[in-house]
Amino acid sequence: MRLLKWLAAWVTLVGAPAAASVFELPSGCEAYVTIQYRLCTVTHHYTCSGDPDGIQHRVDIDDEGPYFVGTIDAETQWIESFDVRLGVRDRLDPAPADPANFTELTRTGRDDFDFSTTSDFGERLSYRGRDKLTGRTVVIDNVPLLETETFARATRADGSLAWESTGNEYIHLDWRLFLGGSSAIRTPEESFQRDDAPVEFHFPGEEGFLSDAPKFNCDALLL
After folding, report:
1. What backbone phi and psi angles, to 5 degrees, belong to 209?
2. Which of 8, 170, 188 lies closest to 85 in space, CA to CA?
3. Who's near 52: CB < 8 A, 6+ residues apart?
4. Rounded-to-integer distance, Cα 39 and Cα 13, Å
5. Separation CA 58–CA 72 (nearest Å)
6. In whole angstroms, how far apart are CA 130 and each of 38, 102, 134, 164, 216?
7. Going by C-beta distance under 8 Å and a sequence separation of 6 or more, which residues neighbour residue 210?
8. What is the pLDDT of residues 99-133, one digit of tens each?
9. Burial class (CB in 10 A: 0-12, 13-18, 19+), 132
10. Count of beta carbons in the 10 Å neighbourhood of residue 18
11. Beta partners for 48?
12. What is the pLDDT of residues 136-171, one digit of tens each?
């Protein structure tokens, strides 16, 4: 909760960044990597003192400012997410049928999941799918990542489709993170392709670390 209060205050006081500057994390939190993605997003991954072991957070920023804050546990379960623009927060429902399990994925090469989330407004979404390691290692900006083949389907409380996605993502073993990749997405209204793989990694002390400005393809999104 404190992270969401901090973010609301940050957006109100600072607004969308006019030029590249350093993004300020909430008090007691420390980032360990900044990732620039292909589709006009820069993401900061960080941990905060006082959190239970394994909990970590991320904030996604586009050319208009922060738009998403997420919290996961050590097994990459979606504990909480917050859509900044809509002001909607979703939380993981208790006792998932088959919780996401990063350890199982890395040990066996496959992890199936079946869980649900509920928003502040009572909207419930159920997620079913699986992640599989392809056996391929990809090196991006000198960072080795393991490629996954993923399928996920989200349905509403009445069983209707919200969205469905297939494609490839990446994981980092030490960070215990999933990173974006390429996917084919289907909703009741449309189908489209998306390629949002990481391009650059920036670490503490490096230029670009905690930058609040995405670097890649922002102009293309306006066309």
Report:
1. -70, 130
2. 8
3. 73
4. 26
5. 9
6. 24, 11, 13, 12, 30
7. 22, 23, 25, 31, 34, 44, 202
8. 999 999 999 999 999 999 999 999 999 999 999 99
9. middle
10. 8
11. 29
12. 999 999 999 999 999 999 999 999 999 999 999 999
Contact between 88 and 119 (Cβ < 8 Å):
yes
The DSSP 8-state label assigned to residue 216 in this structure reads S
Cα–chain center distance at 45: 9
d(CA 150, CA 181): 10
* Full-model pTM: 0.90
For the chain, the 3-state helix, strand and coil shares in percent, each to the nearest 5, are: 10, 55, 35
Please give the Cα distance from 189 to 202 (Å, whole number). Answer: 37
The sign of the dihedral angle between the CA atoms of 195, 132, 124, 37 is negative
Q: Which residues of 165-175 are buried (b: 16+ CB within 10 A; e: fewer)?
A: bebbbbbbeee
What is the Cα–Cα distance from 171 to 173, expressed in whole angstroms? 6
